[in-house]
Amino acid sequence: MKIVEHWLEGPDTERLRCTKNSRRMEVADTIVLHATEGANAMSSACYLARRDTSVSAHLVVGRRGHVIQLLPFNVEAWHAGESEHAGRKGLNACSVGIEIDNAGRLHCRGDRFFSWFNREYMPDEVFTTVENGRAAYYHRFTREQTDRVAEICRLLKARYLMHWLVRHSDITRRKSDPGPAFPFEEVRRQAGF
Length: 193
Fold this sequence. Notes:
Strand content: 25-35%
Strand order of the largest sheet: 3-6-5-9-4-15
Radius of gyration: 16 Å
Largest sheet: 6 strands, mixed
CATH architecture of the largest domain: 3-Layer(aba) Sandwich
CATH topology of the largest domain: Lysozyme-like
CATH class of the largest domain: Alpha Beta
Oligomer: single chain
Helix content: 10-25%
Mean pLDDT: 97
Distance between the termini: 19 Å
Structural class: alpha/beta
Order of helices and strands: EEEEHEEEEEEEEEEHEHH
CATH superfamily of the largest domain: Peptidoglycan recognition protein-like
């Protein structure tokens, strides 16, 4: 995989143009990781690209490592919202947003696990942690996803001299994604941050 004229090129990558964003970023020095909390990568990408939504992102990474790019890396996406990091506010203006296909928090009914959109997940897809003294369940990320995210972050760091790799939850109190199931420290090391 490589970056050519601000677009990813390589196997298992495709483009789905998001035409609502056009403001150029003067400098991109931060990568922000998100979880889609949706049904699948393509439905999340289509939602982010819709003209009637106020959100967007540069990339969506699917469960098997497939990448959908919506915006070139030199165009501002609306993924960070009200945000702050390293003494700066409004990180949309200086960051690349990567959405990772994941259902997010799961709910246990008996011995079965369901997403907010009522899809059932098998026990081997469930990450269990403890929150406020009680078990909490999240959709696991796949190895293909985390490896692909690390690869993309390495490419972005080399091409744009990125200084920071952060989670959405690191830049705003309003969000908790990508959540405890995401192996953030491992991805940071793999990506060279």
